Fold this sequence. Notes:
Elements: E1 10-14, H1 19-29, E2 34-39, H2 42-49, E3 55-59, H3 65-78, E4 84-87, H4 102-127, E5 134-138, H5 153-171, E6 177-183, E7 186-187, H6 189-192, E8 202-203, H7 204-217, E9 221-224, H8 226-236, H9 240-250
Helix pairs in contact: 1-7, 3-4, 4-5
Amino acid sequence: MKTPALAQQIIWLTGASTGIGEALVHALQARCQHLFITARNVEQLQALAEPYQNVTALAADITDIAQLQQVADHVRARFGRLDTVIANAGTCEYVDVDAFDHRLFERVFNTNVMGLVNTVEVALPLLRNSPRGYLTAVSSSVTYLAMPRAQAYGASKAAMTHFMACMKADLVHQGIDVSVISPGFVKTPLTDQNDFPMPMRISAEDAAKAIIKGLEKRPWDIHFPKRFTRLLKFMGALPTTLRFAITANMSLKKGNKDSSL
Ligand SMILES: NC(=O)c1ccc[n+]([C@@H]2O[C@H](COP(=O)([O-])OP(=O)(O)OC[C@H]3O[C@@H](n4cnc5c(N)ncnc54)[C@H](OP(=O)(O)O)[C@@H]3O)[C@@H](O)[C@H]2O)c1
């Protein structure tokens, strides 16, 4: 079946209050029929939605399935279906192996992995009511190469990508398309905290443009900027000895102790 035009779509975007999500609100609202936006900061969401007639802001923490179910109930009452879900909400914390803390992993996995699972659980029945539903999740290009300090963030994003690949295998039989979105570095409040160089970092507005281009075509992996993501994919495919030599060289711990590979 032909991919429905964005103009006819009812879309739910999570993590819409800042960063990539915020840029997507402005870029998507003009192209779709109705956009539901969620995050925890409801004041920020309402300010974003205010100028637009076809944007509805609802507060929902993705780690709380009851709050997400309320969003789904609201969507069902108004439109009876969802055509596209963009599970964008997420968090990032980097690990210091000298101050290893399982609670950091719990926070990151609970938001990124369980938050996605929760979102999918409440959204699936509504996607099944669409002529051709589309489930997408914002993972990361970090999944192409296991980098230092990304034990929690990178592993959570790898889990998300694997989860989505499994969903694709099952949902293809129900006429629902599935994609992951794998950005490189994008300038947002999340990356503003980073204390390391971020090569080829792009603006949130350019990220939103690349995502919308992808939403119109529905490839398995919507990745950008291509120069950066192709380089990471290439490094990720190198023989292990070479690959680990490169990533060990990126580690802040290098030179601390005997780091023989
Ligand atoms: N920026 C990058 O370079 C980059 C690269 C690759 C992937 N990504 C991914 O892109 C997505 C968006 O990130 P961003 O860079 O735009 O960061 P951001 O500006 O920090 O945005 C994160 C969004 O997620 C929401 N959020 C976080 N925890 C939530 C929760 N428990 N429940 C509901 N909403 C929650 C935040 O809203 P509230 O705080 O209001 O809830 C916010 O709207 C994330 O999944 C991130 O991992 C970003």
